[in-house]
Design brief:
This protein is mainly alpha-helical. It has a domain at 46-106. It is built from four helices and no strands. The protein has helices at 36-41, 50-59, 63-85, 88-106.
């Protein structure tokens, strides 16, 4: 009578694509949308990005938010005009102006504590 024994199987080949842990998605546009769900889970009420900050300010009747939104819109309009003309110097100028405004809205460019 043969002894009962186990069976050993050795398999070769590529692992299944489902065998790997999911890699975190990269943030191509730096808008932090991938982390937005985490913020909501933590119960934070802080806005996720510049557009949300402006939106909340406009909803609350914040006069500074009105001015900021109009200035950012003007910069983007000027960037479009400069780009359509192929004017790289003007495009760079308006791009930097818009970046400065956005940093101000985000609170990153405040020197004196006021916006």
């Amino acid at each position: 009578m043969p002894k009962p024994g186990g069976m050993i199987a050795i398999m070769f080949g590529r692992p299944s694509r489902f065998a790997h842990e999911r890699e975190p998605q990269s943030d191509e546009d730096n808008l932090d949308r991938e982390d937005q769900g985490d913020r909501e889970d933590q119960g934070r009420d802080e806005p996720a990005n510049t557009l949300d900050i402006l939106y909340q300010g406009l909803c609350n009747g914040d006069e500074q938010a009105v001015h900021d939104a109009m200035e950012i819109g003007r910069c983007i309009r000027q960037m479009g005009r400069a780009g359509s003309r192929g004017d790289r110097a003007a495009l760079d100028h308006w791009h930097q102006q818009c970046r400065d405004l956005i940093q101000n809205v985000d609170g990153e460019g405040e020197d004196d504590g006021e916006r």
